[in-house]
């Protein structure tokens, strides 16, 4: 089975290459439709620029070249995985992205673990204890957190847990005033991670709870569960061994979507909590018209989407052996 | 209301108190402060950019030839003394001996000549304004610099701070592509603080320069700049004590008024005398209806400046009388004598009459015409100011539609295409009107290529002649007379409606002492700031 899966994943990724290329091409021209260029933004920030200054910047950024030439240069560099140079940050884009990737990854992975874990747990409980007080509370909480704007959740957590209770820092990823190193640094980052990770988990946890509950209810009503009950199996055994695996598939699908949105999805949380991740970088790049950087981030997220989709398919087969992957032939 | 004088007075008192030991508080060596600012700069060498955050950080790393006292008189910095030639066309600076760059190399006159002529004049966005007439620079010895000017230029002596003309190391920059030089993001200067690290998206850390030429200074061991994108989070950081200082514009006025009442937090006034910002409404004088002076004056009469200041900006400013901020009064350029006063009691009646005369009578529903107001995209408060303006102009029958766009779109449409009717902005006047105020109303700065110039497209030969005369006039009294006439002419014509002389206030924790000791405020060197443990 593993070899078949390996072939399948490779096939999917190869199929992904033309898709990624198409995404890059569309993005390249699409983001240039936005009015204003980087030179104007920089001049605006300067507040008092001269014509020579504008011309210098345009020449340096290559903005004075015709669009087709800019495009050819970009594609040529991309072939050797050179994402180009961000003039705004005065840095290679690849190194800029890698530097920020860590912060986003730790935030996203933590919040995924939290939201999937609690989502499955709460959803399952709500389904098993259907039409009881517990299930009503869970469903109502899920609806409320689902409908609450993310930035508001973030700010409320800051006000309650950072300002009033003083348990956590208000923002950032590490202590700036009194920096620490080594193991203490790890603990320091964890301390800073709690509020943003919890805030980011809320929305997805609500989503997973609802998905899990609906899926679990459906599963519990199916014939094979009745058969299991008829065999005299215990309730917990039925839930753990028969229902859970079947009910979990929609949650996995949703989790795949969440990973795909990983690079851009945490813009709000990153900006509210001053978390130095990629979402913030992309957001700032958009408003500064740092188009090369934006393209670089888009390029990476498109790769991530293709790879994640393939991996989620593989995980399906592990959770539910009835699902078979059929290489590149499945269309 | 706060005045420049009182700030100068109180800070002078505080300083003398400290020096005579009259007060129990004495400066303490050590510790550090965290300053929050936004947005994260693109580079931290302000010889190549005048972006506010770049300036806030780089002015701690670099020195200028001069510094200024609160009345904008020059003080020694890298230059120990100076002499202006008889004809006003040469300025000789004697440099400080024994100054070292952060990498240990000696600082010499060659660095000054290189910085001013080859870097600042060509690359700093205000370099042409500050150093325009400087044609050549002689360096007769290692500690002497002679600037040769095409004509006398009084503003020169106002623009040699580390904000306007930072001195950069020649041995690092010569024969390189300056903007691509790695040193622009890990700068080497002569200033009180050395660059340590830049954690992108998070913070920049500076540390005390132990070899700083002001012996014993700075007091602080570290100075850290934190970048937080969300304004509410910044306020929370100040409240929790994680942040010691929030620079101007990083916390909403309403939040500042709330935090001000909190124990241990106060507002840091002063420190913008040499920046002199004015908030304004620019009118497109090239098209109807604002091509008519009467219509522009009607708008000037209709706006209740004090009310805008109180309701939108929570009192952080005072009504503007004209293009020059009253906060630079000390230099004598500012006047209200003979300047038309738009705040008279019957101003609304006058405004309506002016509109009638201009050919815009009120319709049956009281409405005269409709305009679009492009709100500056500097934050929510600007939108709220737009709403107040809409309400106030509604009273004289002008309907206002507000338009908000993202920043690059705003700059392109308004400042590059001149496709607008009325737009809000703020403009820094600088220590001398020639350096800052001039660009908003001089015919030569009508230029679609360069944003934030004369977007009103106002062109008046009389005004142009006065700006040009002020550039070359050597006698300060005569120059001020030119500026006074300019204020009378410009306020009468009102191509721009000047709304507020802005208080560029910062927010600080009280443990931070002597934060504002320069007319550049947080854009000064901050070498005499200290913290109470």
From TrEMBL, chain A:
The keyword RNA-binding does not apply. Pfam families: BPD_transp_1 (PF00528), BPD_transp_1_N (PF19300). It is a multi-pass membrane protein. Its main location: membrane. It comes from Falsigemmobacter faecalis. It is found in: Cell membrane. Keywords: Cell membrane, Membrane, Transmembrane, Transmembrane helix, Transport. SUPFAM superfamilies: MetI-like. The chain crosses the membrane at residues 12-31, 105-125, 137-163, 183-207, 247-273, 293-316. InterPro entries: BPD_transp_1_N, MetI-like, MetI-like_sf. Residues 101-316 form the ABC transmembrane type-1 domain. This is ABC transporter permease. GO terms for cellular component: plasma membrane. One of its GO terms (biological process) is transmembrane transport. Belongs to the binding-protein-dependent transport system permease family.
From TrEMBL, chain B:
One of its GO terms (cellular component) is outer membrane-bounded periplasmic space. Residues 74-434 form the Solute-binding protein family domain. GO terms for biological process: peptide transport. It comes from Falsigemmobacter faecalis. This is ABC transporter substrate-binding protein. It comes from the Bacteria. The keyword Signal applies. InterPro entries: Peptide/Ni-bd (IPR030678), SBP_5 (IPR039424), SBP_5_dom (IPR000914). Residues 1-26 form the signal peptide. Belongs to the bacterial solute-binding protein 5 family. One of its GO terms (molecular function) is peptide transmembrane transporter activity. Its main location: periplasm. Keywords: Signal. It is found in: Periplasm.
